[in-house]
Each structure stands twice: as structure tokens, then as C-alpha cells.
Design goal:
Elements (H helix, E strand, L loop, with lengths): L3 E7 L2 E7 L3 H22 L4 H49 L4
Antiparallel strand pairs: 1-2
Helix pairs in contact: 1-2
Keywords: Cell cycle, Cell division, Cytoplasm, Membrane, Septation, Transmembrane, Transmembrane helix
Subunit structure: Homodimer. Interacts with FtsZ.
Protein name: Cell division protein ZapA
Length: 101
């Protein structure tokens, strides 16, 4: 896959980037980052590009790690639910055969 070049603007600064992603996806990411940086700047009063970028990065990594933890918990919950279902089926089949005590 070839790299495409994109001229983007984030928080008032222009950059040229290369990406294998489609244009629509690149601009979706860029627009999200720009909006988050503006939100962080508005909430903190920080206006320096690199300081806002750092604070926004911290917020986004925190959000990512929180979601990752939630996914891991749900995955673990699904494993427990599957094991419980297996145990219930085992108990049910034992009761049907009257294989208990």
C-alpha cells in the first residue's frame, strides 16, 4: 500500500503527514485531535501548542487505558459467565441422570 500525503491543521498549526489510511479516516482523526486540544486549552487556559498537545495526549492515553481496562474486565466477565454456564449444565445433566450423592 502506498503512502498518501495530507496537509493538515491541528490547533492552528499546519503539518504535512504521510499515511496509508484513507483521506476520510485521516481527517476524522485530525478533527478529533484538534477538537480535543481546543477543549483542553479551553478548560485549562493553556494556549502553547506543545503544552496543550502534551495535556491532550495525557487525557487521550488515560481514556484509552480506561477503555482497555473495561474491555479486559468484560472479557474476564465473559470467561466467568461461560464457566458458570458450563457448571450449570453439568449440574443439570447430573440431576437429570440422578448422579448426585
Amino acid at each position: 500500500m502506498t503512502l498518501n500525503k495530507y496537509n493538515i491543521e491541528v490547533f492552528g498549526k499546519e503539518f504535512t503527514i504521510s499515511s496509508k489510511e484513507k483521506e476520510e479516516h485521516v481527517y476524522k482523526i485530525v478533527n478529533y485531535l484538534d477538537a480535543k486540544m481546543r477543549e483542553v486549552s479551553s478548560q485549562t487556559g493553556v494556549i502553547d501548542f506543545y503544552n496543550v498537545l502534551l495535556l491532550t495526549s495525557i487525557v487521550l492515553v488515560n481514556n484509552y487505558l480506561t477503555l482497555l481496562g473495561d474491555c479486559n474486565k468484560k472479557e474476564k466477565d465473559l470467561k466467568y459467565a461461560k464457566k458458570i454456564k458450563e457448571l450449570i449444565n453439568l449440574i443439570d445433566s447430573s440431576l437429570e441422570r440422578k448422579d448426585f450423592l
